[in-house]
Amino acid sequence: MMKECVIAIIGAGATAVSLLQALVDEARAEPRCPRLVVYLIETRRLRGRGLAYEDDLASNLLNTRAGFITPFPQRPGHFFAWLQANEAAWRHEFPGLVVEADTFVPRPLFGLYLECMMGELAGELMRIGGTLVPVTAEATDLEPTPEGRVVVSTDTALAIRADRVVLSCGNLQAREEGGCAGWATKEKSKALALLV
User: Fold this and answer.
1) Strand, helix or coil for residue 166
2) In angstroms, rounded to a whole number, what is the distance separating the alpha carbons of residues 186 and 73?
3) How many whole angstroms separate alpha carbon 3 and alpha carbon 54?
4) Nearest CA to 160 among 43, 42, 39, 47?
5) What pLDDT sits at residue 64?
6) 123: left (phi over 0), alpha (psi -120 to 50) or beta
7) Are 188 and 178 in contact (CB under 8 A)?
8) CB under 8 A, 24+ apart: contacts of 60-63
9) SS3 label, residue 88
10) Less CB within 10 Å around the terminal CB: N or C of the chain?
11) Rounded-to-integer distance, Cα 70 and Cα 145, Å
């Protein structure tokens, strides 16, 4: 039985928050689950916000009402409940905002919430014996190994040997070398499809 499972998550936005919650829930439900070591690879310093909910303009509103948006499918209304219970965490940035379940709140406010959730999930993972390792870098290459793992290389010369890799990069911008930094060749994609 595997004693440790290393997971590399490339991209630390809303999808990564949702995935981390699912991993924590699964580890809690299955006591024989291997110890989780999660590398969270993100070019931005802040984890959770991603590009979609970065701290830009408060005039950029969510397209979903506060009472209905959540990164946790099993917890409807979680964001709205968090807003009500944690007003001190956000009120200074949004002083005149009136929040009700039907309010379309600023996107940066949802980003702040995701950032807070990422911090809470890191603590929850630690409490169940796992580890969250934040890596401020860009993933530049994925290379399958003969033993069935994947080496994730970064622009900071870090090489992470992972049992599983999750690409949660959001909308990637096109590059001259053909998209995902040129490393998602057909051959690699086929090999990685079996591992991811």
Assistant:
1) strand
2) 33
3) 37
4) 39
5) 93
6) alpha
7) no
8) 60/106, 60/107, 60/108, 61/104, 61/105, 61/106, 61/107, 62/104, 62/105, 62/106, 62/107, 62/110, 63/104
9) helix
10) N
11) 37
Look at residue 172 in the predicted model and tell me its pLDDT: 57
Query: Length of the chain, please?
Result: 196
pLDDT band at 171 (very low <50, low <70, confident <90, very high): low
| Both tokens assigned to 128 | 């169940």
Give me the amino acid identity at 154: T
Asked whether 6 and 37 are in contact (CB, 8 A), the reply is yes
pLDDT of 78-88, one tens digit each?
999 999 999 99
Strand partners, 159: 153
- The DSSP secondary structure of 142-160, one letter per residue, reads EEE-TTS-EEEEETTS-EE
Which pTM was predicted? 0.82
Answer whether residue 29 shows pLDDT above 70. Answer: yes
